[in-house]
Amino acid sequence: MEKSKVITWAKSCYGFAEEHTPNPVVVLAEQSRSRLNCSIVDHLPESPGEGRAATSVSAVCLSSRESFTRWIEAPFASISKARKVLPTLLDIQLPFPLDDCVYCFLDVAGTRRNTVEALAVGARLADVERKLESLAANGIDPVVIDQEGLALWTQSLSEIPMPKGEEDALRVVMHLGTAHWTVVVGRNGRFENAHAVKTEDIAQIKRILHQHLPPESDERDDKVHWIWTGPGAIAEETISAISACLLKRRTETSFIPEDPRAFLARAAATRALVSGPLRCNLRHGRLTHPSITRRRARQLTKAAAIFLASGALLCGAGALSREIARKKEAKITRAFQSLSEALTNRGITAGETAALPVIASQARQRIELLQPFMSPFSPSLTLTLARIMETGRKSGLKYDTLAISRDDLLLKGRAAEWNDCDMLVEGLKNLGRPVKLERTESLTDESILFTIKRGGNK
Amino acid sequence: MNERVFNRIIWSGAAISVALGLVMTAQSAWRLRADSAELRRELASIGDLKLLARDMEERLAAQRVFESLPVKRPVPLSGIIKSKFSDETIERFRETRRESVGGWVVREAEISFKNLSISQVMTFAEQVEGSISKTPNPDADSAPPWRLTGCIINATPGASGMGHVTLTFEALEKSE
């Protein structure tokens, strides 16, 4: 069963019962953390408005005489399709036009029969307006208008859960009010219907109950749980007298909640504040309480302001990112310009990337022209020459041809043994001149002919 | 101004603001993507240019050392050669010049010897270069030095340690 919350912002709620009497029952339910405290109060609340009163609301119940509850079944498996036709199906069942009513559909769910079932709750607009006028005359301005039958049902399940093993028993909530009595019937935790009857109209109550139970002659024993609430439930003799006139089943159990007189007021207040099943507020549409309208308007304005701020933030972020990118580009442009000026004595902007190869080429040419100035700062070629001569002497090499420059090297000669050149090759590599060595055996004598030239790995 | 008008203004402003923000964000994102690729290319180019600039600066620093020398002509090579070798030994002596930068010219001297011992080659090359050090010493060598840039030795058959030698030297000179 789906759960919902009628009022999401209030921390406390005044629930009313017997509001037509000079001394209505007023219960204040206050939510603190996860607990709900209910207490009877003897004053009427301020009208909901701004300031301190903004977090407190009032809730009353329309009696089952002033309102209706109906289970409606739509011949669709799809809930969304069913929602579209539920009003029409309800309209057919009502003796008055649905357009003259306030209504809502609760507990819309699929069934095993591939249909969709919903509980319709509503009241005629005229009845609700009349109720509001009479409440206003008594200084009561409710934000929530609940339905009596649903309130009694859910509150009874909350305060007196079905005993284990007897969940399938018929539960009958008898609300003994001063103006009328209400009979709420359900089974397996499922609300079936609520009926308003005249006070002490036992015959009507019997007829209602027999609709929900097999005949008394039936041997089956259907368990019945009685929940007695309302001002009339205080006196045990009243309950006994009523019970004696009603069903005589082998298994009947009676429960009386704590402070039954305030039960309905507790139910109204609790249902307005706490999330649960079958929650409704028939004060909607053009009957919506001004405080809710104002609250919605404030929320809309807040949402709009948030969007405005988000948009401004996005604009700002966009502008900022562009500015950061522009600054980075400017920095790179300056670096580019100073480098190109240093290399070519001419400023070139970063956008002239096509000029890069030209700049690089000019720079390399200039570097080439300046290379002779580096000559005295590089190791002298005489060092290499000296190393070649000395190593040749040590290794017993005989050179036939030697040609050496800064970038090139060619050495041809003879060695006595195959490995005699290795020291020379190693020495040249250590001087930063990687070379390649080729050796062959001489055909004329036993010497090894070698050729050393530029190349190889460093 | 009633509440409805006020709400309309707020919502219109919000819608415009969000739309503008989204457009600017999309534009910035697209532009940044394009710009970042361009910036990366330019940064890579700058990296290449920085390397070139570093090489350039090294050479310019070397040029400044030469500019600071009191004498901007190298010692005449012909004088050293004549003092060391007889005319019969010298096969050829040739000098060339090419322009460098800042008024400097590169002088190249190529000397070929008919039959010279290798040890004489080494001694001569070291003498021409002056002291064998990595940097020119302005006090001892106040003129741009000669540097050996090439050496070709072809051994004389049958004469150990002797050969036909061609030495190439290079020096910088600035006419003042």
Q: Oligomer, anyone? A: heterodimer
Structural class of chain A: alpha+beta
What's the alpha carbon Rg of chain B, rounded to whole Å?
35 Å
Which word captures the global form of chain A?
A: elongated
Tell me the series of helices and strands of chain A, N- to C-terminal.
EEEEEEHEEHEHEEEHEHEHEHHHEEHEE
Mean pLDDT of chain B: 84
Strand order of the largest sheet of chain A: 4-3-2-5-9
Question: What proportion of the residues of chain A is helical, as a percent range?
Answer: 25-40%
Number of strands of chain B: 4
**Distance between the ends of chain B:** 89 Å
The largest sheet of chain A is:
5 strands, mixed
Strand order of the largest sheet of chain B: 1-2-4-3
> How far from one another are the termini of chain A?
82 Å
What is the helix content of chain B?
40-55%
Report Rg of chain A.
50 Å
Low-confidence stretches of chain A: none
SSE order of chain B, as H and E?
Answer: HHEEHEE
DSSP helical segment count of chain A: 10
Q: What is the residue-averaged pLDDT of chain A?
A: 87
Overall number of strands of chain A: 19
